Amino acid sequence: MQIVEVSVTGVRSAVITLQRSQTPMRFVLFPMLHLGDPAFYRSVSARLRDCDLVVAEGVSGRSAVTAALTLAYRLPGRSPRLGLVVQGIDYEALGVPVICPDITAGQLGQRWRSVPVLHRLAAACLIPSVALAIRLYGTRRFLARYWTMEDLPSGQQERLRAMAPEATELLLDYRDTLLVRALASIHETRMNEPVDVAVVYGAAHMPAVTQEMSARFGYRPRAAEWVPVFDF
Fold it and tell me: Within 10 A of 113 (CB to CB), how many other CB atoms are there?
């Protein structure tokens, strides 16, 4: 199942509705990309207003680690030439309850120290230089070259995991666990209610959601709608 598609014309993200036959509650997945056209985030915000609960990604608190890692998209987001903005959704203005089960900045900083020193040094050196190069010289097409996402891992994703297993476990797997745990709790308490629960997380977290919610509770994709992120 495609989650994010990169084509000759641009990038689009699939809004996917998960439901099971026994109960009326639905999970509506919004695979997010941290850089996009402002219209993409406006479109997502409009759809969220029709939901009954939002489960949102977001590292709470501030830390040097968070600032360093998010530089990868914050710098390109300041490029007038690219014409893209950093993901921004005003959750308070939605009028919908929001929960955030993500890792805290303190937990991230503590766990980051378990990543091998060479990997941390590589991130500290490469992220600023690559982000600055994209801001100054990159194109939308170059930026999106590895953004294709499906529910099964690609060869490139498997190579990245093999190269940096500790970092992948922290930034992806551990946070996947926190997210799925929260969704499981919502399922247990509200599955008999006819509510739509929006899951607004980075696209890389969505395979874990679809696989775990299917295996554990029988949720299956029932509908999908493509939303343009940006064109080339």
Answer: 9
